[in-house]
Design a protein that fits this description.
Elements (H helix, E strand, L loop, with lengths): L1 H6 L3 H11 L12 H4 L3
Length: 40
């Protein structure tokens, strides 16, 4: 999830939306943990 990682904290919300809509290739196959994916 490089796009989300580069945008930092705000990416968490985008990440959830992307996961819900399920665009192919943009979301990891398994549900990701925001705390693990985006370090504060």
């Amino acid at each position: 999830f490089t796009k989300a990682v580069t945008t930092g904290r705000k990416a968490r919300g985008d990440c959830q939306v992307l996961t819900d809509q399920g665009p192919g290739g943009e979301v990891p196959p398994a549900p990701h943990t925001p705390t693990a994916t985006f370090a504060d």
